[in-house]
Each structure stands twice: as C-alpha cells, then as structure tokens.
Amino acid sequence: MPPHSSNLPTALALALALLASSASAAEKTAPTIPPGPLAQALSTFAERSGITLSFSPENVQNLTTQGTQPGGTLDEALARLLQGTNLSPHKTQSGYVILPTATDTSLQLDPTNIDANASQSAFAPVSGYYASNASSATKTDRPILETAQSVSVVTAAQIADRKVDRVEDAVAYTAGVRVGSSGLDPRFDMISVRGFETTMSADFLDGLRQPGSGWLSLYQTEAYNLERIEVVKGPASVLYGQISPGGMVNRVSKRPSLDARNEVQIQAGNYNHQQGQFDLGGRLDEQGDLLYRVVGVYRDAENYIEQLNNDVRLIAPSLSWQIDPDTRLTLLAQYQERETAGSPMLYQQGEHLSNFWQGDEYFDKLEQRQWTLGYEFEHILNDTFTFQQNLRYGQVDTTNQYMQPFQERGSVLDRQAVGVYENMTSLSTDTRLVSRFDTGSLRHTLVSGWDYALLETDLLYAMGPGPSIDRYAPDYHQPVARPNTAWADEDGLEHRSGLYLQDQIEIDRWRLSAGLRRDKVDVRRSNHLAGSKRKDDDAATTGSIGALYLFDNGVAPYASYATSFLPQSSSQPDGSPYKATEGEQYELGVKYQPPGSSTLLTASLYHLTQQNVLTRDLADPTRSIATGEQTSKGLELEAVSDLSERLKLTASYSYNDAEVTKSNDGNQGKQPLNVPRHLASMWLDYRLPFGLGLGAGARYTGSNFGDAANTQKNEGYTLVDAGVHYDFAGDLDGVRLGFNARNLLDKRYINCQQGYCYRGEARSLVTSLSYRW
Predict the structure, then answer these.
(1) What's the CATH number for 252-772?
(2) What is the DSSP letter of 497?
(3) What is the pTM of this model?
(4) CA-CA to 624 of 20 to 30 Å: which in 410, 421, 510, 593?
C-alpha cells in the first residue's frame, strides 16, 4: 500500500474548500409514475424521488391515480397524482404529508415528527435514526411496524454520528447483536445474532449473498458506503437460503437519489489515522431520469497495536436510469484495496503481555483486493405484476500471512510462518415477480422467485520456518521467507439455488405472511495434494408463517414461526459432508409506534433451536456426528427515535439464555462458547440551538464462557463512546467540525475462547471536518 502522506490533509482540505465555494442545490425533477392504485403509486413516488412521504392508509384505500407525466417539480407531480381524490400534499421540514383537502393544516403535529405513517423508501436516505420501512425481511419495501418479525435498522446518520468504519462497529448498538468475540480483528466483521455467528453465512449486500470461501477470503464492506444496515432476527432461509439461524445482516449500498446530500470530509486521529472521504451525486440530465452517485474513501492508519495497519482505498460509483415510466435500471460497482493484519493472540493472560505482538511487521499482513459489478432492474408489467432482477459479479484476491508461535522457551517464542493465499470469484442473482392483487377482502403481495449463487475458490495454505522472538525485547523486522510447505492446495466450485414463494396478506388490520422455499446445493472439491476429487449435494425445504395485528393506537402485537438450514463447513473423514444444521424459531413480540411520531419500540420473546450440531461419536471418539443441539431463549427490547429535530436516540437490552441441550462432549447443559446472557446499549445525540451537538453512548457485554466446560469465564465489560460536533452557519453553512471517541475510558479487556485470548480495541480518537450541501 502507499506510504503515509503528510500532504493528504492539505490536499483534501483544499478540495473541500473548492467544492464548498462552488456547490449549489439543484431543483429536483419528479419521477414518472404510471397509473394504478394510489397507495402503490405514492410508495413508488417516494422511493424514486428519495423523499419522506407520509399518509394514512385509510385515506388512500381503494383510490386510484392517473399517474404523472415526464418533467415538472415534485409539488406539481404530487398534485397530479392526487387529482380527483380530495387529498392534497403539504410540504414539511422532513418531507411531505398527504391530508384530506378539508383538513385544517394548522392542527398538524410538529412537522419534524410527521413521518409516522411514513412511506419512506427502504433504499433512499433518511434524515435521522428512525427508519419506517425495511426490505430485507420481505424483499419488498414494507413498514417495519407491519412486519411480523424483529427487524433493526442502522441508518447512515447513526454511522456518521458515531464515526465508525466497520460494519461490526456500526451494529454494536443493535438489540440481540454481539460483536468483538475475537477482540480487535480488523480482517473481517465478527457479528453474532441471538447467539449464532453470521460472519460466513449471513453476510449480504443489497439483498444478495456476499459468500465466503470458508477460510479467510471474505468480502469487506466499508460502512461509509452504506445507506443503512438491516438486521433481521431469526431464521430467514425462506427468502435467502443457507443462513445462520440467528438471523442475517443486510448491507444496503448508497445509490443515486434526489434526496441524497453531497459531502466531502477529512479526518485525523490517534494511531496515525488519516482519512479522506466523499459522497457526491446528482442529475446527469435535465429531466432527472439519469442520476449518479460516487462514494470514495482513502484511509492511511494503524491500530493501537502499531504493526496492524488499517488502510483502505475505495471507489464506489453507481448510476440509476429511469428508462421509461415503468422501467428502471441501477448499476452498482465497487473497487477496494485494504491492508491490515490479524488480532494478536495471548497464550496466557496477564498485563505483561498487553503490549506484545507476536508477529513481524514486514511479513504479517492481510492484503486484499476486491471488486464487484452488478445491477438492479425493475419493470412494471401492469397494475398487478412487477418484474425484478438483481445481479452482482465479484472477485476477491487475498494474501494472509502471519507468524504463529508454537513453543515457549522462557521469554522466547519459537515461531513458524503461515501463509494463506486465496482467489475467490462469485456470482449472485435474484429474479422475482412481485404480484399485487385482491381475493375478496384479502389484499396480497405475492413474491415468487429464484435465486442462484456461484462460488469458485482457489486456495493454497502453506507453512514454513520462522525466526524466534523475545517478548521482552522483540524484533519486529526479521527476514521471513515465504512459506513453501503446502498443507492444503485445493479448489472448489459451489452452486446454490432456491425457489421461493412468500405471500403477504392484508385483511382489515391483520397482516399475515406465509412462505415456502426449496433449496439445492452442489459442491465440487479438488484436493491437489491428495489427487482426489469429490462432488456432494444437499437439499432442504424451509418455511415461515407470521401474523400481526395493527391497532389504531400504534400497537402491533405479532407472532411468527420460521425454519432455516445451513450446510456444515467441515467434512467427515471420508470427505463427505455432515448433515446440514437446521434452525427453528418461535417468536412473540409487540411493536409500538406512537401516532404522529418518529419512534419505534420493539419487544420480542423468542425460542430458537439449532439441530445437527457436530458432537463426538461415542462409538468412535476420534470422529464426530451431527446429532448435537443448541437452544437460545431470550428477550429483546429496542427503542429507536428521532424525538425531535435536535434529539435522536437508540437503546436496547437483550437477555439470551443459551444452552447446549444435546451433546456427547460432556458439555450438555452448559452455555455455548462466547454467548453472553446480557447485552445492553444506549446512544443519545443532542444538537443545541446554536450549532453545538453532543453525542454519548455506552455498550455493555455481559460475562460469557470461553470453553465448553464453562470453567474459563470472560468478565463482562462496558465501553463508553462520545462525540462533539459544531455546525457552522452563515457563509459556512454546511460545514461541521467534529470530535469522536470510541472506548473513551480506554477500557482494556480480554476475551478468551478455546485456549486463545484476544485483546479488545483500545481508545480511538478522530477529529473530522466535513462540508455537506
């Protein structure tokens, strides 16, 4: 990677000043909407124009619209949509609200809180922490309040206010989510949902799987490039196939939008942190049918262990084309380079090891180059049918090298060099038909589709001799030869496909859902060391049902049942795969959105079971069999609110009573590894009238066990984060100066698992200067 550059802040500051002096806001041009049901037309209008649009479902029920024609402003287009309906649009500070024409608008609530019954798009920017809609749980743009499942959304505003770079850090305040189980390991995001890891199986970008190779080759997503992160709790196999029973994490990319704000920003912080980033977009034609957006990040930084780089180079362009009133195409591309290294392992606990790193600065590294190219296509066939197809092709090349101690001689550690060299190519597609129709008093939104994923991998895992190191007088710059003894040399080809059907039904105030899916997996492996080849396949059927009742006062109780499956990553001694794990969840919950507010409160109870977990074969202790079982029973409470234009809040508490319920390993009745019973968090951001803003939060992770026998306990810990920002006015309107601290109190903690111990992230400080327009 390029060396540190002292000219970076100066150059970026100059670019910021030039852009600040020349930027101006452009008048938005309205999208073209075809005739049809008014509710659908308003939702489509909000999504395509990137605005917040609020309306009461009762006011638009059974109404139709003649649509809009090309050109014109948003106000003119909305008036045309509502022509002949006795409804009219009213503009507020946060968007538009649709009211009966005879309504006395002087009786409206505070405009900052009027997005309550919102038709916010699940893909367009939202101004605060509260998001009314999400797409991941249903593959449609649907209100979270009306979804019979626990769904959390981390918006771009939350990411920006906390100044986080990684997805793992962005979801740290989300109910039911545990991060940092391996301490600081910037190579990938370690995220658990309801006690089950999601890193390898439930990593999604824009609703398409980001597959992993099973070793260390994983797609990495920079948080700044995301419009939001949606966390769906519990099994989601009906729509997404092979997935962790705990849930899924769907990253939603920034994409062209008339409502997106441009930004340039520079940062500086401790551990030689230097970063510049920009988010630019707008119209390419007068009508606004062709929109673009470009996101870029340049980071030169280290971690608190100075030998661990944290360098990133990212460019992510996107283009949206409204081909005609019924057809839209969005192209999404990304190129990223990064360099970092693995988390140091402590082979014995104690403060005397707190500043020791067992690697070599020139040899240890994870270098990764990745790129992706894809599209999202939508064509409205008629008032009933909409055809959608998403596709993404990508490649990841990874070099992961590290020094591994294998013997201690007093203060001297004997080490060997390890190298993992991987190339991974993937293709993910999802083709679906969304059908909206009525059968009597039942209003259906039927999603039927087929998704397919291809994963091709090439792996070399090698070891070799390495120099020793004295932990009291370490030399981090010794010559290390590239490992040349291959322990694994193989390639693989996986085909994953699934047919799915999910119906969302509205009848009066009931919201019902039912889904069914059939999955098929074909895997081919070639072991070049053994000269062997193997082909395996698996198939599974999964389903889900849910029911929710929407009261007038904003209370929505719900119940749901869902199943999942996930093939095992390891193989039996003969090379054949173990039986796939199966998940099953019962969930009861209640959501509450006070009418006229931008607040969502969620409480959920769940019972989640994973079967076919690997355990020892009593007939042959050297082998494993897939007969184990693990359960998680818990409670989650979450609050997200834009209490006012100036005050924003997120808060959560999670209780998880996890247990190994079937096992031959002597741990039956014990808690699973690294699953704390208690998680809690709260973050508040308050902006004072004169431009000064304050943000503060705390994250608590309860104690957990690092071994199967529950004899090694990791103590709980609390991390405090904080931020201060000042928004300039007058000629400097749009300029913000900020200061953020993660782990403000510099809490040092250690987390151990299966004999290895890892340090958590130390305090990090970042100063930022940004301009938005």
Answers:
(1) 2.40.170.20
(2) E
(3) 0.85
(4) 421
